[in-house]
Amino acid sequence: MCDTISGGVCAAEGFRAAGLHVGVKTHATWKKDVALIVSDVPCRAAALFTKNVVKAAPIRVTMGHLAGGQVRGIIANSGNANACAPQGVENAEKMCAAAAKEIGCAPEEVLVASTGVIGQTLNVKVIEEGMPELYGLLEHSDAASDAAAHAIMTTDTVKKEAAAEAVISGRTVHIGGIAKGSGMIHPNMGTMLCFLTTDCAISQELLREALTEAARTTFNRISVDGDTSTNDTCCILANGLAGNPEITEKNDAYIDFVLKLHEVCWHLARAMAKDGEGAKHLITCTVRGAKSEEQAEHISKSVISSTLTKAAIFGCDANWGRVLCAMGYSGEEFNPEEVNVTFASDAGEILVCENGKGLAFDEELARKILSEDEVDIDITMKEGDEMCTCWGCDITYDYIKINGDYRT
Amino acid sequence: MCDTISGGVCAAEGFRAAGLHVGVKTHATWKKDVALIVSDVPCRAAALFTKNVVKAAPIRVTMGHLAGGQVRGIIANSGNANACAPQGVENAEKMCAAAAKEIGCAPEEVLVASTGVIGQTLNVKVIEEGMPELYGLLEHSDAASDAAAHAIMTTDTVKKEAAAEAVISGRTVHIGGIAKGSGMIHPNMGTMLCFLTTDCAISQELLREALTEAARTTFNRISVDGDTSTNDTCCILANGLAGNPEITEKNDAYIDFVLKLHEVCWHLARAMAKDGEGAKHLITCTVRGAKSEEQAEHISKSVISSTLTKAAIFGCDANWGRVLCAMGYSGEEFNPEEVNVTFASDAGEILVCENGKGLAFDEELARKILSEDEVDIDITMKEGDEMCTCWGCDITYDYIKINGDYRT
Question: With contacts defined as CB-CB under 8 Å, which chain B residues touch A51?
């Protein structure tokens, strides 16, 4: 879909990052657990948060800090969600204060995020003690973004990084980011954790609007297990160092920026769905011929969230009846007798249901198609001209294994 | 909760049942696949169906037949859902006609239901050919109810039967039924298949109201996997042979009838949740202190439907953070800082979260409590005085195994 560049969260001018193991994760000392992202100059910032009523302490702290309008950095940890935990807000504030002391800014200029186990007191002391070393590791490099991307991973099996560049008003603008996903992924806004940076000069209001639009069609269209986390945070820092004239209206420059931001978010969202806990398949479900984008989205999301459909894809079983069933309980009205379903992948494509009825199809070919890592479920209705794509993954023995004993 | 009697769907006077293998299930010739339930005299009938937009053919046929107001029997098969299948309505009508011919009634006096694979043509010929033998097996006995209960099973590991009696206006009234559940269970009305019979004399209108009320607080409060089936059917036949004065208003007799019907449905619903595909634990989640029954129901259902909570219970892991998280995305507003969570079972009980914060608790005891077959999650809020209980089950390796290759 797009040509990306390297650099991740450090792709944009003036951003440095670092990742380090300080001891929040007690079992695995080789796993980084704290990430720091710092801009050389003050940034505009925007963020989206979980719509879960139970919001983790760092989200509440970050919401307050965003109100200040000026941000220098982000401090984040994995291994503990600091949600429903004693001294939650106090400990999140301490993380900001420790980072601010090194950066040389006010604690209110630092955003904070956490991911990991819910309900256990965060060992903030090890984060405070490790902060000077973490700060000392800051670099504007591919390796630094890589370290930060690793430091926010929990059960993720691969790091998630993406970056892209665009020429806006004659200047090269960079947008990049890191993210983590894996379990408890059914974002109702962004996703578990996603930190984006850009050197684009853009107004606070349009930065927020661009982020909302990009997340709506990427992070809000993935699901791993239907569980919307208490800690979902997606934020973007813009430091203006690209030197482009500040974007203050919805002109071509704004559109170029949104498109590029969308590209980066698309990469990260897909990577999150593909690396869902225990997942063996990325499932891309596209619904066409809907009467509205919203209808297409509800139906597509219902399909990728269906436990039975996910189990069928795990078994490479072309059980399209489950796809129709999930469409049917999406809450949307449509004529089931005008639905076509096709399974597709790099191994080919096969129409399995036409006008709501099963076709005799080549089971061998179907199994071959569904054995690929990335599988498409293409649905066509005859309700209208709108479409939507959502991303999910299969459910596997490993998902059960990972989540049957997560805390210990 | 209640003292039940034997007899299942044959507990009520004048009802006979039978189950037989005729060949719809091609792989397992020792498994019964057709059930017939017949009343000696015409019945009033009421039924609830799936709210899935994709409705199986037998549901559409049954809806039409119910309009006639008089029913003699029910014909049902397992092994094929006759949903999204060629000649669906035609084949469902053929099942009714074949049964009606034996019973000696009009085809419109027979209800029909199917469960099994979606999208494959029903082999109605074997059902038609087997009908005389099936009819010949009809009996008013425990064994006959048992045979019918087995004949509607798909991946169920145990049959589901229940019956109860009540003295209404001086006459002994019986209510009994059989059901099947297992997978694709997240009823938005009743459940996969449930056939209830009673000898109570009751008006058509109140029979329907009683069934709706009983299902609302039983079948509509269970979930196995969040997938609402295309075939959910719950129906009741009332033949009036108990000889009680017909119930035509909401007097004490009506209340006695509803309570008894609720008792039978409660048993069947719990049995369905407990025998969810691959399940090792029945999970009973009770929410107290809600501002409305609806709020309590939404929160409780969100908890029992949470894949992550289900995986934690499978692992006997007292990960209450997932319970709070699921409460938080239920769509209901509440104060998370006034929530208490207790895990309980026959092995004891343990408070793990108080006022929204984790407590230090005895992990050994918690594991012992969660190792029991039946586990309670008791949630207390401070929003009001209402409560609700919902039932679910854990998600296991076997669920994935069963559903990864269901069709073959």
Answer: 329
| Active-site annotation holder among A191, A218, A284, A286 | A191
Residue pair A112/A76 in contact by the 8 Å Cβ criterion: yes
Closest to A400 (Cβ–Cβ): which among B184, B314, B332?
B314
Q: What pLDDT is recorded for position A408?
A: 52
Distance CA A239, CA A201 (A): 7
Specify the residue for token string 């186990």: A117
Q: Please tell me the distance from the alpha carbon of residue B271 to that of residue B269, in angstroms, as a whole number.
A: 5
What's the token pair of residue B135? 């009819």
Between CA A22 and CA B52 the distance in angstroms is 51
Those residues whose C-beta lies under 8 Å from the C-beta of residue A303, and which sit 6 or more positions away, are A285, A287, A309, A323, A326, A327, A330, A377, A379, A390
State residue A78's pLDDT score: 92
The DSSP-derived string for B121-142 is ---HHHHHHHHHHHHHT-BSSH
Residue B245 Cα to chain centre, angstroms: 29
pLDDT in tens, A268-277: 888 888 888 8
Counted across chains A and B, CB pairs separated by less than 8 A come out at 211
3-class SS letters over chain A:
CCCCCCCHHHCCCCEEEEEECCCCCCCCCCCCCEEEEEEEEEEEEEEEECCCCCCCHHHHHHHHHHCCCCEEEEEEEEEECCCCCCCHHHHHHHHHHHHHHHHCCCHHHEEEEEEEECCCCCCHHHHHHHHHHHHHCCECCHHHHHHHHHHCCCCCCCCEEEEEEEEECCEEEEEEEEEECCCCCCCCCCCCEEEEEECCCECHHHHHHHHHHHHHCCHHHEECCCCCCCCCEEEEEECCCCCCCCECCCCHHHHHHHHHHHHHHHHHHHHHHHCCCCCCCEEEEEEEEECCHHHHHHHHHHHHHCHHHHHHHHCCCCCHHHHHHHHHCCCCCCCHHHCEEEEEECCEEEEEEECCEECCCCHHHHHHHHCCCEEEEEEECCCCCEEEEEEEECCCHHHHHHHHCCCC
ipTM of the complex: 0.77
Domain A8-274 has CATH 3.60.70.12: yes
Phi first, then psi, for residue A177 (nearest 5°) are -170, 170
Sort out which chain A residues have CB atoms less than 8 A from B330's CB and list them: 53
Q: Residue B125: CB partners within 8 Å, gap ≥ 6?
A: none
CA pair distance B173, A66, nearest whole angstrom: 67
**Is this structure's pTM higher than 0.90?**
no
Tell me which of B51, B82, B84, B154 to substitute to probe the interface with A (most A C-beta atoms closer than 10 Å): B84
Any B CB within 8 A of A188 CB: yes
Closest CA to B65 of B47, B87, B40: B47
Positions of CATH 3.10.20.340 in chain A: 282-404
d(CA B190, CA B220): 6
**Nearest chain A Cα distance for residue B408, angstroms:** 8
At B38, which helix (H) or strand (E)? strand B34-49
Q: Does B407 touch chain A (CB under 8 A)?
A: yes
Instruction: Specify which residues A386 forms β-bridges with.
Output: A290
Tens digit of each residue's pLDDT (9 = 90 or more) over A130-162: 999 999 999 999 999 999 999 999 888 889 999
B353 touches chain A (CB under 8 A): yes
Q: Which two tokens stand for residue B285?
A: 């989640």
Contact (Cβ atoms closer than 8 angstroms) between residue A237 and residue A37: yes
- The low-confidence residues of chain A, meaning pLDDT below 50, are 1-2, 188-191
CATH superfamily of A282-404: ArgJ beta chain, C-terminal domain (3.10.20.340)
Determine contact, residues A390/A309, Cβ cutoff 8 Å.
Answer: no
Indicate the residue of B121, B325, B329 with minimum beta-carbon distance to A118: B325
